[in-house]
Amino acid sequence: MSGQSQRLNVVPTVTMLGVMKARLVGATRGHALLKKKSDALTVQFRQILKKIVSTKESMGDIMKTSSFALTEAKYVAGENIKHIVQENVQSAALKVRSHQENVAGVKLPKFEYFIDGETKNDLTGLARGGQQIQACRAAYVKSIELLVELATLQTSFLTLDEAIKTTNRRVNALENVVKPRLENTITYIKGELDELEREDFFRLKKIQGYKRREVEKQREAAKAYAEEQLAEDIALKRGISISSAHDMLSHTTQKDEDIIF
């Protein structure tokens, strides 16, 4: 893209030059801040990605442990364990709540689980397999904890990915479009102002030359008028013609010049 198409269409004045310089300073500062924000988000993005990988790796073992615990509980307490557990549960004791965490201006959702009230199903499976049922419950609580953490990481991962893309687009726009356009505009305004200054200087020189010629013409006219008046005075005093008086004045002037040189 040529420089003509990359500059703004503005009037080249000193005021506009100041405005463009101020906009360039603002664009430079904004670019630096957005670059720092992008770097901070990228660091956080990589940390979250590492946590997601490690969490998914550990999730396989934990889910396997939970499944085996459920199988053991069914083996010990019988296949009708589902009805027994449901009869002893009135409301959910394990709940999830969310809040937002600010990271470099980006609000990331964060989920965490909590136990609402006391657990009232401690007597579940008291007749048969109570210990296995409690072990199965603990295993699944740990699985839920891991799933909540993974949901937080996945949601933050997607939010950060979109924020990084948006920030990088703004950084690239400032670096490759806005700043070069402002710099080209400033260069254009400076060139036009220099050209106007040269035109003003040339105009002043022409005016001074014209005034000087006018002054010289006025001096020559005044000198000719004075010589004419002097020739008339000499002609009247000596009774000669005006041309003879002019000749006498020219001879006198020539003699004075010869004496000087």
TrEMBL record:
Per UniProt, which keywords does this protein have?
Answer: Coiled coil, Ion transport, Transport
What's the domain of life for this entry? Eukaryota
Q: In Gene Ontology terms, what is one molecular function of this protein?
A: proton-transporting ATPase activity, rotational mechanism
Return the NCBIfam families for the record: V_ATPase_subD
Name assigned to this protein: V-type proton ATPase subunit D-like
Please give the InterPro entries that the UniProt record associates with this protein: V_ATPase_D
Q: Which Pfam families match?
A: ATP-synt_D
